[in-house]
């Protein structure tokens, strides 16, 4: 899975709040979430749909209600991507440090 939809979904501070809430208090319905925030149920649903499209939430139909759960797997993908990028940066810094030390710029 591409990390693009995950980054796009997490780029919105309100969606991050929704994920934090679901991480602590899953499952929740859109109605229950709308009671917690100054946003309509429809507004909450739009955000939940973006999170669902990114694979960050899962929906379970229970009777007439849809319950939303956090799906942590995409966050693991994101973490691996960040670690890979960070590792490359660390390697470059070590190379730069070695070059500077070889030039006797740092003692």
Automatic annotation (TrEMBL):
Coiled-coil stretches noted in the UniProt entry, renumbered to this chain: none
Keywords from the UniProt entry: DNA-binding
PROSITE patterns for the chain: HTH_ARSR_2
Gene Ontology MF terms in the entry: DNA binding
Record domain HTH arsR-type: where: 1-90
Entries under CDD domains matching the protein: HTH_ARSR (cd00090)
Keyword Transmembrane helix: no
UniProt cross-references to SMART domains, sorted A to Z: HTH_ARSR
InterPro entries in the cross-refs: ArsR-like_HTH, HTH_ArsR_DNA-bd_dom, WH-like_DNA-bd_sf, WH_DNA-bd_sf
Protein's recorded name: DNA-binding transcriptional ArsR family regulator
Organism per entry: Paenibacillus eucommiae
